């Protein structure tokens, strides 16, 4: 049994590393892609964690958007926390905050996430604009200023 390859998302992460100072575009979905954040109260509770600098330690969110069934984060790692640690913190703190403020229990987020390390030649602002424009592409709003669940450090 031990010589069989591991299956699932965990196996995809094998051999991957996160590098201090690098920037990653991360997409995380809700459990079963349920549109949990269509509920304004849940969305607000999660967003409060994204705005709390203490959640990520020395890593920081450059840009983020919370959609009804997923989130996009542009994360720059510091020296202390790995990418899996940063993503775990975002998911865990937002879940705890939702349960503390609104009651309930259980998972909000799926266990897996997708990440893309930005190469040195990729324009960070272009990726940030792509992230922020998600509500427009999903036709949730006609102007990004009308969508309440996003932020970027460049504002």
TrEMBL record:
What is a biological process (GO) this protein takes part in? Answer: DNA transposition
Output the SUPFAM superfamilies linked to this UniProt entry.
Answer: Transposase IS200-like
Q: Name one GO molecular function term.
A: transposase activity
Domain named Transposase IS200-like: residues: 19-134
UniProt xrefs under InterPro entries:
RAYT_transposase (IPR052715), Transposase_17 (IPR002686), Transposase_17_sf (IPR036515)
Q: Name one Pfam family in it.
A: Y1_Tnp
Q: Which domain of life is it from?
A: Bacteria
**UniProt-listed NCBIfam families:** REP_Tyr_transpos
* Name of the protein in question: Transposase
The organism named in the record is Stenotrophomonas daejeonensis
